[in-house]
Amino acid sequence: MKIKFVVLMVVALLALGSLSAVVAQDAMGPYTLVMWSQDGDTNNAVIAGLFEQWAAEFAPGSTLEIVQKETETLRNDLQTAGLAGSGLPDFFLGPNDAIGPLSDAGLLQPLDELFDMSMYPFNLGAAQIAGVTLGVPTNAGNHLMLMYNKSLVETAPDTWADLIAAANAVEEADPEIQGFAYNLNEPFWFLPFVHGFGGSTFDEEGNFSMDTEAWVNAYQFVHDLKFVEEVVPAECDYNCASDAFKAGTTAIILNGDWAIGEYLDTEVSPALGPDNLGVAPWPAYEDGNRPQPFTAGKFISIPVTTADAQLEGTVAFVTWLTTDAAAVEVHALGTGRLPAIAGIPVEDPILQASQAALETGVGMPANPALRCMWDSVRPNLEGVMSDALDAATAASESQISAELCLEG
């Protein structure tokens, strides 16, 4: 699906419906706004089309420049611009894990007095620190789940034993097809395994709790998927798994709700589309417990430098984008995500399956100390997945490294 086509489609869809905003807006502007986004070009095109509709109705002559930035680049560029004292966007869109570090750096505006936060009942806590809201949710989720090609695997494997059997059957039928793949060395894909074994990043006192049996079990489990069961590729990152899934050369993957939209588009994903894409919760361990993905969503935050007319325009557009029912249906459901406001029916079976997967997850805190966890886990996970480090050592070293990171 080409970006220009997406924009035209959004405008056409909106023109068919009533777009009276939940919060009535008088004519205002015009505004010249800049947004940085981690949401991908196709999803950004949807926002661009929605902004055109909003501007035509409420702020004629307004423009929005959207700059796409990957997760780490977004966070780093925001921090760099903040330190320089110039160059920050009017607002930015991304996952909640940037909120903690940016809040620590004093770069984010509190939003409780700018928006009606009662409109967002599902995942607001993922953008709150010490009770202060620093991000407005555009959708609920951002969760990892099982995805499978129904032309290669008839039904979703319910247990890891089922998954291993299904992946082996696919490879036996066609050695050119990989049965199962995922982003092996990325901690975001590893934490669900930890949660499924009963582990967490922090204990009840808020201290790191990474040198525990649950973490050891999780490191051992992913190690054995590769070196004992031999059910994953020798090396595989995000693009390895996702691109092969789109092409039909991998049957089962683990990926997030952000990818559903492109997997439903047969122009981008010729092996998938609505007929072949299957979505399900993570498979269960032998004891019946399932890995539990982090859940949050995507959030819009506003830097402290946004003021006066820029702040007025940002708040007006973001309010409309995230609370107008027709806009939410296009921006959330239309890109394969779940809405962050109540009252929007989820009727699509793939999104219903995504919702079922969401319900198995655990909320991702905005705690800035999470950055130390991610940075400490990564090299130790890489060590386990290269068979250079045993599970117990990986857990111990992760704990030590995270504590040293927190000490500064």
Which parts are unreliable, with pLDDT below 50 for 5 consecutive residues or more?
1-23
What would the average pLDDT be, to the nearest integer?
92
Number of helices: 15
Which architecture of the largest domain does the CATH hierarchy give at level 2?
Answer: 3-Layer(aba) Sandwich
> Whole-Å distance between the termini?
46 Å
Q: How does the overall form come out from the CA principal axes?
A: globular
The CATH superfamily of the largest domain bears the name Periplasmic binding protein-like II
Chain oligomer state: single chain
Largest sheet: 6 strands, mixed
Strand % is 5-15%
The total number of structural domains is 2
**Helix-strand pattern, N to C?**
HEHEHEHEEEEHEHHHEHHEEHHHEHH
Short description:
It is built from 15 helices and twelve strands.
